[in-house]
Amino acid sequence: MNFFEAIFFGIIQGLTEFLPVSSSAHIRIIGALLGDDPGAAFTAIIQIGTESAVLLYFRHDIARILSHWYRCLIGTNGKDVHSRLGSGDKDASMGWYIIVGTLPIVIAGVLFQKRIETSLRNLWITVSVLIIFGLLLWYFDAKSRQIKTLDDMNMKEAAIFGLGQMLALIPGVSRSGGTITFGRAMGYTREAAARVSFLMAIPAVFGAAVLETVKALGDASSEPGFPGWGATICATLVSFIVGYMVIIAFLKIISTFSYKGFAIYRIVVAVLVAILMVSGVILPMAGPQS
Description:
Blueprint: H1 3-16, H2 23-34, H3 40-57, H4 59-73, H5 81-84, H6 90-111, H7 113-117, H8 123-143, H9 155-166, H10 175-185, H11 190-220, H12 229-254, H13 260-278
Helix pairs in contact: 1-2, 1-12, 3-11, 3-12, 4-6, 6-9, 6-11, 8-10, 8-13, 9-10, 10-11
């Protein structure tokens, strides 16, 4: 992978990470088309760029949630269990909801790590879940009422959001797509479902990206597709800048329009990739060999 391909992957990461279209599927598919597997180290590092964009955009919300959560935890608002769990404090409660919503993806990621890195990367699985979750997003967004906001969330619904995020371990589901689909199915507004998706991504994706980066640092230079540190850092900065702009645009778009366009896009991409696999242009277990 050369410098310009690395920058291109950074742009793709920034464009797709927060949209319900699956960034992992796009990186997977484009890597197959280019004949270059970006590699675990490169992919993990550029994810830090997009998640840093979330930290910057939601910095005031994050600071408020953390401070309220900490005060409740140490008993400033009361010594009983309910007070420590954020009873009567929406921001402290949101801190606990994010923790609860993060647990499913962490547990599943540890238990099924080998399968996630191997068999689940088959492109036939990717195109299948692109279509399935595209249809589910389309259906629930069209049929569900928009009556719930972040203030209406409870522990049970936080766990359900977490299950949607957990399914994103399968390339093609989309982390934001999974949480947004589950949120719309529960009656959350489009903007509320999107905000939950952004906030729950912070510990799950940012934490995983940092850990994978640390693990891969020693082996990065030896990976066949690694473009070098200069190109990787530039791609990370590009993913940060593009990702920040996408967050702003996405929240504005969904305040006016539905998720229907994203659902149709998922289905179209899946069909095109299926045609390419049937015609032999790319292989289901695509990589450098394709």
